[in-house]
Amino acid sequence: MKLFKIRGGVHPEGRKELAAKQSIETPPLPHLLHIPLQQHIGATASPAVRRGQRVAKGDLLAAGQGTISAPVHAPTSGRIMGVGSYPAHHASGLSVPTITLQPDGEDRWSDRIQGVEDPFSLDAEAIAARVDAAGIVGLGGATFPSAVKLNLRRKFRLQTLVINGSECEPYLTCDDRLMCEQPDAILDGVRIMAHALGVTQLIVGIEDNKPEAIAAMTVAAAGSDPAIRIAPLPSRYPMGSEKHLVQTLTGRETPARGLTADIGIVVHNPATAFAVHQALRYGYPLVSRVVTVSGGAIARPGNLRVLLGTRVQDLLDHCGGLTEEPVRLISGGPMMGQPLPSTRVPMVKGSNGLLALSASETRRRAPMPCIRCASCVQACPCGLVPLEMAAQIRVGNLETAVGLGLMDCIGCGSCAYVCPGHIPLVQFFNYAKGEMATRGRAKQKQTETKRLAEQRTARLEALKRAKREAMARRKREAAAKQKAEAAALAAKPAREAEQTLTET
Ligand code: SF4
Ligand code: SF4
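The joint structure predicted for all components is written out below.
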């Protein structure tokens, strides 16, 4: 298949060999599960259980709210210990609404779980409804509710479904292992999604550093649907960025700040396709995912099928614990992942990796002044000028940085990776984006406050006007009454005189 060249990108040390050969294993049931109610982009799910209630595996714990949301299900059977708050799987470590479940050890599925014999007999809406009810979100880390994406045909003219099997972040091998071990199930999910989207072109892009996965998927595709093309991709970070993957495979550029759907293409992850297969064929909701546990500080790196809500510490223990104090504990990959505040936090739908990096694997050096070498410009896959954006942000000119394309930055970290001055460019960009978002919200609030104030003034004015008019009306009525009474009084003596004359 013809591939198209994209600009920029880097070749970070992969370190995938740590876990790439480790088959997916299932750790024992943890003692407790802490299941956050928001593991997705959109509105927080609303609790559907109470403390002390017994639940079976797959039972609904919290229902999705509104158009963009996702329900949460019991990852195993057990008893609800609490509906409260617990530290989030987030750098802030703030507590978030969470349901705590004590497994009963039986791991018993709910009787209500039921699959569909022939998912291809369902229409698009019915497939999307089942995906929605199963709580499936983008498992590549984006966590956007998948059902919303499956309904895109209502709004866009779609032709192509791309499966993003590039997994370009160093260390991560969870998608690689899933493609090696479950190629038929993944491709079944791909075909179901393609049926829902109404597309006929199916492409699975896989970086060429995963030869076993490419071989397994190629064999499965030949036996499943000849329309599915398996495309080996050059290993180059950030190939996993949706827009860059689409450009590599099709040569088509997604409009700035637009969606790939704008050019008729929808992108999903192999793990999402696997989850769709499980939901449609067997009725299983999303209660677990594959996570790569790796890094130089992990005694026994591996790929684990993890129940959602399992604590980081439980995974570390299962992998033989830490060989040294990690310098960085990260959720996701080292380029775009988020630091974790502690080992107490639970794994969630978007957690594809848990990395404990040793000192020798991290490059913590004091930043030096920019020498204007332009390495960051060459590395940027979005065609931006990182050194200029950072310089403007440093002096507080955020609007100028926006003018230079700040909002097109995908935060991939390629610029910081090549910077010889170790300037924390991504931190600058993340700070500025956050600040701009805060300002945007403040401006929106200001506009809303002004609108409400104007409405109030108009209401008060109308009230005053109505009062004035009522008072004038009352005055007019009183004057008219007075006049009528005066006229009646004036007419009385004349009538009396007239009556006297008549009597005499
Ligand atoms: S790579 Fe670093 S030192 Fe070189 S121009 Fe960019 S910011 Fe400056
Ligand atoms: S983090 Fe942003 S500016 Fe830096 S290389 Fe990636 S897209 Fe370009």
